[in-house]
Specification:
The chain is an alpha/beta fold and about 525 residues long. It has 15 helices and 18 strands. Helix 6 links the parallel strand 10 and strand 11. The longest helix has 23 residues. It is globular and about 70 Å long. The N terminus is likely disordered.
């Protein structure tokens, strides 16, 4: 644990205005990985007798032995049948490091497709990274994580495993970045120039807002020339000119959140019928009114609903819903009192969550029962669309956007898995979204095959090991575990991830939690 984090824990911090894109000077330096922070990589790591959920959607199988050489999987060997002695002659030879996986489950490392590394609320990346890693998140897409140059430096340190951190893909907002002249007018020509600027810096993709149509067209067209990925938060100030259907037709790869989706299906209006006193700068107006779109659109199963799904499936469009980040709107008391806050939410982040007119996402100025009911109804429609899209062949990824709205890093990600199941996903479909589909979303824009995301020889050794069946109960993936009555008829806690493996380095997830 860094000295900076200890100082944060020792004193309460004031609530600060959110500043997602921080300069390198504002972020605490990430400490180097210390002795005892992960073991390996090993010339030969062997995981014995484990049950594998491979990320493709296939059913679990085991017992299986898995061989990892340095940072890649080299063999996946079935060694028998449950309840029967293993076939010793079929087992791989001993490794320099052995893990007994008997009774345990192994999955590919998770991909969080929508992250920020902190704002005014949590400036210590060590804290954020360890929260992700202890929840099995081995890859993140920063949208953005911090400032452009800082992000690129963190990506390099993580790639070399010099810090304890997930693998990073760096996406940035248009017309930002150290060295970019923000005084330049925003035109299609400067949009193309900015894409070239970011590509030269080395970003992996771009995170767009609801840019004016001519600028969005230029940004997406230029980005394709450099094999840059794209995702978009089609905010309410621009969505009237750039909804999700519009952006997908221009070549957008991923829609994050729900902005632009409902606006693509409006029935009796061409814009959202806001109250006449609506003010976007009032965060309770902003977040309170968006939920009241659920009954203003063409209904589930209508020709318009089905046509949009078909169009997006045909385009291989991806939805990254981030259900988790808005879930407090349905029941703020539940999220305010979540099990993990007392032990894992640092004071500055807790203060940032509290109702405050100057803090983004702290919009509980007077949150009413009616507000929560509207959000519950909104979620029913939103989840129905995402589930229908999945059932039609569309790909859905898992992103958390944690650090806001009572969602603490890592914990918010596991809640996203639970919420996909609530939407109608089978647990195996949830794991596929968290692994294979996340990997595809990050690799396909580059024109490259996946390098992680499923358990296969040749791919990077990114894995999650847990001593309970996650398909039975995703709550066992929380660091706080799941409540279960023991043999003495007393409530106990079970689960919590046992090991997170990234690049063949074995991290004790419970030690990360203790840090």
């Amino acid at each position: 644990m860094s000295r900076h984090l200890r100082r944060l824990l020792a004193s309460s911090a004031v609530c600060l205005t959110a500043a997602i894109t921080l300069s390198a000077q504002q972020m605490t330096p990430t400490p180097n990985r210390q002795a005892g922070e992960g073991e390996g990589p090993f010339d030969r790591l062997v995981i014995r007798g484990i049950t594998v959920i491979d990320g493709t959607g296939a059913p679990p199988r085991g017992p299986v032995d898995i061989v990892v050489q340095n940072n890649r999987i080299s063999r996946v060997v079935s060694v028998g049948f449950p309840g029967v002695a293993v076939h010793e002659r079929s087992r791989p030879t001993k490794g320099a490091k052995e893990i007994d996986g008997t009774g345990m489950y192994l999955m590919p490392g998770f991909v969080d497709a929508h992250v920020h590394c902190g704002g005014g609320q949590a400036r210590d990346p060590e804290y954020v990274y360890k929260l992700w890693m202890m929840h099995g998140v081995t890859t993140v897409r920063g949208v953005p994580c911090g400032s452009m140059d800082w992000d690129l430096g963190q990506r390099e340190l993580s790639a070399k495993n010099q810090i304890v951190a997930p693998r990073m893909f760096i996406y940035h907002r248009p017309f930002t970045g150290e060295g970019w002249d923000r005084a330049k007018p925003q035109t299609p020509e400067t949009a193309r120039e900015w894409v070239r600027f970011g590509a030269k810096k080395g970003v992996d993709g771009n995170k767009f807002g609801a840019q004016d149509p001519e600028i969005m067209a230029a940004l997406l067209d230029e980005a394709k020339k450099f094999n840059l990925g794209s995702t978009a938060h089609l905010d309410q100030m621009g969505v009237v000119r750039m909804n999700a259907r519009d952006a997908s037709r221009l070549g957008l790869g991923t829609l994050t959140h729900y902005y632009g989706l409902f606006e693509s299906l409006l029935k009796d209006y061409s814009i959202q019928p806001y109250p006449v006193n609506q003010n976007y700068n009032d965060e309770q107006h902003r977040f309170g009114q968006v939920a009241r779109l659920y009954d203003k659109i063409h209904p589930r199963g209508s020709d318009e609903w089905n046509a949009l799904i078909k169009e997006w499936v045909d385009r291989r469009f991806i939805i990254d819903p981030t259900f988790t980040i808005y879930s407090a709107s349905r029941d703020v008391m539940r999220m305010r009192n979540a099990d993990w806050h007392e032990k894992y939410t640092i004071p500055s982040l807790w203060d940032f969550y509290q109702p405050n007119r100057n803090a983004h996402g702290a919009y509980w100025f007077y949150w009413t029962t009616e507000d929560e009911i509207q959000w519950k109804r909104f979620y029913q429609v939103w989840m129905s669309f995402v589930n229908d899209f999945k059932n039609a062949g569309g790909r859905v990824t898992t992103g958390s956007d944690s650090g806001f709205i009572y969602q603490t890093y890592g914990f918010g990600y596991i809640l996203e898995l639970e919420m996909l199941q609530e939407a109608g996903f089978h647990p195996l479909e949830v794991i596929r979204s968290a692994t294979l589909y996340g990997a595809q979303a990050l690799h396909e824009p580059k024109g490259k095959p996946i390098d992680f995301g499923i358990i296969r020889p040749g791919l990077l050794a990114d894995m999650v090991i847990v001593d309970q069946n996650p398909l039975e109960n995703f709550k066992v993936l929380y660091a706080t575990g799941a409540v279960k009555v023991n043999d003495q008829n007393r409530p106990d806690r079970v689960g919590g991830i046992t090991y997170t493996i990234k690049d063949g380095i074995v991290y004790d997830a419970k030690k990360l939690a203790a840090d």
